[in-house]
Specification:
With 166 residues, the chain is mainly α. The chain has helices at 13-24, 27-36, 43-52, 61-68, 73-87, 92-105, 110-120, 128-136, 148-165.
Length: 166
């Protein structure tokens, strides 16, 4: 599996690509390495890393957009968040439905989705009914383990988004 490959020093390839970005801050080097990993088992890690590239990097948008439309809900929501993080508010109209559909399909995406909604600010306003419904639910989603800590974190994050948009 290419995403799980390790370098000669035993470091996972995706971790190496993220470390290169952290050290060099060179999008010309980091973006091709990370976009190549979008077609591997490390796709959601690569999408997260692409979202951390602070400068708008047009080269990452097409592969991240493709990942946003394919694969598992966790991959799609992380790719959508990366597209938003890279492209900014102009991408909100295509990102928001992917986030909400992914959350509906796989409730373990809730924390990541709500975190992205917080970053989206006012462009996330159409998600308010979904956030309110989640907070009103007796059995909330949140993380893959449905832990008390995950539930409390989701509640805090959801309330923060509601307060931010109110």
């Amino acid at each position: 599996m290419p995403g799980r490959q390790r370098t000669r020093t035993g470091i996972p390839v995706v971790d190496k690509a993220k470390a290169l970005w952290d050290i060099e801050r060179n999008p010309a080097d980091a973006v091709p390495r990370l976009t190549a990993l979008l077609d591997t088992s490390a796709d959601h890690d690569a999408a997260d890393a692409l979202g951390q590239v602070v400068e708008p990097v047009a080269a990452a948008l097409p592969p991240a957009a493709d990942a946003r439309r394919a694969g598992h809900a966790r991959t799609r929501t992380r790719a959508a968040a990366a597209v938003y993080d890279i492209g900014g508010p102009a991408e909100a109209v295509v990102v928001l439905p992917v986030l909400l559909e992914g959350w509906e399909e796989n409730d373990s995406t809730a924390g990541h989705v709500v975190d992205c909604l917080r970053r989206m600010g006012p462009t996330a306003a159409p998600a308010l009914p979904r956030i309110r419904a989640e907070l009103a639910s007796a059995r909330r989603s949140g993380d893959i383990f449905h832990s008390v800590e995950g539930d409390e974190a989701l509640q805090r994050a959801g309330r923060a988004v509601i307060n931010q948009l109110a």
